[in-house]
Amino acid sequence: MMYLIATLLCLSSFTAFALAKTPHYKAVFGARPDQIQSKRYLLSAWIMLLLTLVIDISQAVGYGSLMFCGQMALAVLLMAVMLSFRPGWVRSLFYLLPAATLIMAVLATL
């Protein structure tokens, strides 16, 4: 369950990384982001990526780093495919991923 939470966080992180860049943001939302918004996306992306690493390493020290690399590869692949073929889906992910992560975190504590 914790690896699922970490995967969702990693996907959220790379969504934020993509939305911090002007061409991707414009493809998804149709407008340019301001500089403050881009910096917020970058800061939140780094925080989520580090949180993913902490979760993975806390589950298993040696295997956690391998899981982290795999989750990053999966997240980058999904973002690249979605931004290439369906940029509108990234907008849906932008809203659904935090909710799904929160639901999984609540279920993991039960």
What's the topology here?
Layout lengths: L1 H18 L2 H8 L5 H25 L1 H25 L1 H23 L1
Helix pairs in contact: 1-3, 1-4, 1-5, 2-5, 3-4, 4-5
Strand content of the residues, in percent? under 5%
How is the biggest beta sheet arranged? none
Task: Count every beta strand, where a strand is a DSSP E run of 2 or more residues.
Answer: 0
Task: Give the termini separation.
Answer: 11 Å
- Please count the helical segments: 5
Shape: elongated
Question: Structural class of the secondary elements?
Answer: mainly alpha
Mean pLDDT: 93
Low-pLDDT stretches are: none
Instruction: Provide the succession of SSEs.
Output: HHHHH
Can you offer a commentary on this structure?
This protein is mainly alpha-helical. 90% of the residues lie in helices and 0% in strands. The protein has helices spanning 2-19, 22-29, 35-59, 61-85, 87-109. α1 (2-19) runs antiparallel to α5 (87-109) and α4 (61-85) runs antiparallel to α5. The longest helix is centred in the middle third of the chain and has 25 residues, at 35-59. The relative contact order is 0.20.
State the gist of this model.
The protein has helices spanning 2-19, 22-29, 35-59, 61-85, 87-109.
Task: Supply the key terms.
110 residues, mainly alpha, 0% strand
